[in-house]
């Protein structure tokens, strides 16, 4: 106290105080700078946390949401912050819930843990598939969960699994289709070979007969039969060529008025045999997408067929009616001719198949095969309904 | 006595050729049917014969390509109900389809002969069957 009045002492004290003050101000400055830095770091961290592509959930001891980042809220399909306190399990379907609770129990005990796949409502219209992993835990008793959106991956894997599973099936189906096509081709080849051999066998037979023939009449008659067989052979070849052309030529599609096409075909037939076509009535009000040339061939064969099988009917009547039925174009050619037994209807459209003796109704048996080929080429269907003596109705249905 | 033969074929030309070939080797007791049902009726019921029992074929010469019911169908029907005469069936064909031939054998045809029919070949087959039957 003896120095208290000493001015020198007072000056020294003042100086020390000033030095302390400067030091404190410097320390304060450093603290403020450090705090600003910490604030910046914290907001950077928060931004990272909120915007991370992973969903982060912190759950309390009861499994309720304590903290969720923005991505996490998106996965939950919930506005940010509004669902705090809800159990995470309440966002899962009953199917996933059991597995999730097992997962959560193991995560709390720090047991080895395989990721858990569950479905969450998601931000969009459909649910998302997520993979849950144990994440940074946070405070005592809390548990951290990270969620990765694997919807796309899951979908791709599902697709791959489906493709792999159905591959065998698709191969089997395709093989069956090819086998059927092969069998049909083989049957067709044998039919063709038979149709060509038959006239040759006749030529050979009549040739033998010719060498035994006595008398000018018998010789001439036998020679004529050989000529007939040769003409038959040529007709078979021509018919096959036409069938092949119909099958191979690309269809030139346009809008075809079936009414005027039918009248044109009928006019051609009238030129060839005027009397026979009088019994045909046409009531066609229909347009289809098709190749007019091919459709003309089909109509011609159907009309020829109807005229042939009404040849011996006292009052022959053939009608062609076409309408849109249930939005599908349908054309029906009906006759009151000899008809046929429906038991053989399956064979009707096969090439070289006849349901009546050739002696009664001559022909190659290719007409209806051509009709079927044309209609199939247009993506349509053809079928016939009949009973013996009751006439027949041929139906051509085109795609809508 | 010539064996009784039934020819089944819908082609008039083929019928004429077969009749001629059969006549050449003395097979003259021959009748014809032009479709399956007609042939089956002739085989099962026989056809009325002047003064005697109904005529029933001992042999059938069957074409495979018949309108409606085809030759294989006729064979199948005969196998189901061969009728009292139970004739032997020889298939006459211009076809070389192995599956069709196999089906003929399986359905009980005793021979498959190519068209045009050669009477002496048929006679040879008939003789060997007769001899096999006698032994």
Task: Provide an overview of this structure.
The complex is a heterodimer of chains A (about 400) and B (about 140). Chain A starts with 6 loop residues before the first helix and ends with a strand. Chain A has helices spanning about 5-50, 70-75, 95-110, 150-210, 215-250, 260-270, 290-310, 365-375, and strands at about 55-60, 65-70, 115-120, 130-135, 145-150, 255, 280-285, 285-290, 320-325, 330-335, 380-385, 390-395. In chain A, the strands form three sheets. Chain A has a five-stranded antiparallel sheet with strand order 2-1-5-4-3, with helices on both faces. In chain A, strands 7-9-10-12-11 form a five-stranded mixed sheet, with helices on one face. A two-stranded antiparallel sheet of chain A has the order 6-8. With about 400 residues, chain A is α+β, with helices and mostly antiparallel strands. Chain B starts with a strand and ends with a helix. In chain B, about 45% of the residues lie in helices and about 15% in strands. The longest helix of chain B is centred in the last third of the chain and has 16 residues, at about 120-135. Chain B has helices at about 10-25, 35-45, 70-80, 100-105, 120-135; strands spanning about 5-10, 30-35, 60-65, 90-95, 110-115. Chain B has a five-stranded parallel sheet, sandwiched between helices.
């Amino acid at each position: 106290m003896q120095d208290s009045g000493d001015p020198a002492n007072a000056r020294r004290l003042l100086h020390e105080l000033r030095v302390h003050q400067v030091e404190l101000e410097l320390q304060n400055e450093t603290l403020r700078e450090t705090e600003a830095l910490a604030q910046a770091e914290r907001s950077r961290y928060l931004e990272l946390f909120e915007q991370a592509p992973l969903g982060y959930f912190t759950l309390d001891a009861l499994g309720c949401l304590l903290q969720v980042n923005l991505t996490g809220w998106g996965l939950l399909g919930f506005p940010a912050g509004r669902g705090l306190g809800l159990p995470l399990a309440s966002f899962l379907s009953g199917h996933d819930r059991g597995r999730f609770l097992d997962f959560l129990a193991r995560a709390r005990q720090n047991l080895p843990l395989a990721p858990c796949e569950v479905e969450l409502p998601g931000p969009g219209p459909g649910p998302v598939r997520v993979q849950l992993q144990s994440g940074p835990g946070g405070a005592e008793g809390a548990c951290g969960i990270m969620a990765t959106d694997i919807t796309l991956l899951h979908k791709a894997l599902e697709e791959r699994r489906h493709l792999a599973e159905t591959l065998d099936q698709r191969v089997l189906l395709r093989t069956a289709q090819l086998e059927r096509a092969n069998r049909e081709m083989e049957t067709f080849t044998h039919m063709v070979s038979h149709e060509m051999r038959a006239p040759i066998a006749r030529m050979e037979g009549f040739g033998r007969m010719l060498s035994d023939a006595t008398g000018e009449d018998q010789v001439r008659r036998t020679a004529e039969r050989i000529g007939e067989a040769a003409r038959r052979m040529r007709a078979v070849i021509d018919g096959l060529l036409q069938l092949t052309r119909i099958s191979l030529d690309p269809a030139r599609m346009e809008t075809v008025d079936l009414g005027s096409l039918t009248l044109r075909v009928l006019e051609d037939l009238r030129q060839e045999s005027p009397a026979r076509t009088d019994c045909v009535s046409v009531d066609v009000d229909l347009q289809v997408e098709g190749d007019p040339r091919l459709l003309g061939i089909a109509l011609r064969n159907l009309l020829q067929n109807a005229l042939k099988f009404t040849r011996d009917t006292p009052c022959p009547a053939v009608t062609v009616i076409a309408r849109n039925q249930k939005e599908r174009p349908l054309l029906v050619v009906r006759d009151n001719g000899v008809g046929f037994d429906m038991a053989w209807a399956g064979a009707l459209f096969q090439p070289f198949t006849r349901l009546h003796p050739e002696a009664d109704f001559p022909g190659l048996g290719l007409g209806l095969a051509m009709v079927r080929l044309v209609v199939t080429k247009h993506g349509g269907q053809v079928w016939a309904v009949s009973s013996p003596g009751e006439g027949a109705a041929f139906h051509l249905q085109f795609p809508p | 006595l010539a064996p009784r033969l039934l020819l089944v074929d819908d082609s008039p030309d083929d019928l004429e050729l077969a009749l001629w070939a059969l006549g050449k080797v003395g097979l003259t007791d021959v009748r014809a049917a032009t479709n399956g049902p007609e042939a089956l009726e002739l085989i099962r019921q026989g056809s009325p014969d002047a003064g005697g029992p109904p005529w029933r074929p001992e042999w059938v010469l069957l074409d495979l390509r018949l309108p409606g019911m085809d030759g294989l169908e006729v064979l199948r029907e005969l196998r189901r109900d061969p009728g009292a005469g139970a004739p032997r069936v020889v298939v006459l064909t211009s076809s070389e389809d192995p599956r069709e031939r196999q089906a003929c054998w399986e359905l009980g045809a005793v021979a498959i002969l190519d068209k045009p029919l050669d009477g002496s070949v048929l006679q040879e087959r008939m003789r060997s069957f007769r001899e096999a039957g006698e032994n």
